[in-house]
Amino acid sequence: MNKKGNQMDSTDIVIQFVGYSNSGKTTLVCKLIERFTQMGIRLGVIKHDGHDFELDQQGKDTWNFRQAGAPMVAIQSATQTAWMENQAVPLPELITRMSEQGAELIIVEGFKRESYPKIVVIRREKDKELLDKVQNILAVVSWLPLQKMSIPVFFIDQVEEIFQFVDRHRLVQNKKTKENK
């Protein structure tokens, strides 16, 4: 449910940013997060890590709980909560959880093989191959001049235009969801 009390299909509010390592995805996503936050849009952001990561700190209580065998550990303070599981939670489940917590837009960085609407970020010439490897591409953000395409192409520094494109996508998807009820 969104903050206005309307039930939403969580897949309608997802947009992925995909590209190879060091393409500028995270920097771009951070700039978009700032803009959406300024508008008062409640965001969820999911990052794929192709390597194993350790969020916890060795020797801290939560780390000790996990080392002792707890498959799920949560920590909470007055201002934040973290939940750690010793398993990979499928992307659709993460999206559903965020949607249920009121996310009005969920930005996913990575997960190239998933089928959600995507913006492909291209930094180097060889990165163009990604355009043939992923599905459901809405737009391209590039560091390089590209030939005319059938989808919108933005330069990496066109943050405001990219923001407006993503926001229009969000609004159109929200409208479609409401019309289908």
UniProtKB/TrEMBL annotation:
Start and end residues of each Molybdopterin-guanine dinucleotide biosynthesis protein B (MobB) domain: 14-143
One biological process term in Gene Ontology: Mo-molybdopterin cofactor biosynthetic process
Pfam families per record: MobB
GO terms of molecular function: GTP binding
The organism's place on the tree of life at top rank: Bacteria
InterPro entries: MGD_biosynthesis_adapter (IPR052539), MobB_dom (IPR004435), P-loop_NTPase (IPR027417)
NCBIfam families for this protein: mobB (TIGR00176)
Protein name per UniProt: Molybdopterin-guanine dinucleotide biosynthesis protein B
Source organism (scientific name): Brevibacillus laterosporus LMG 15441
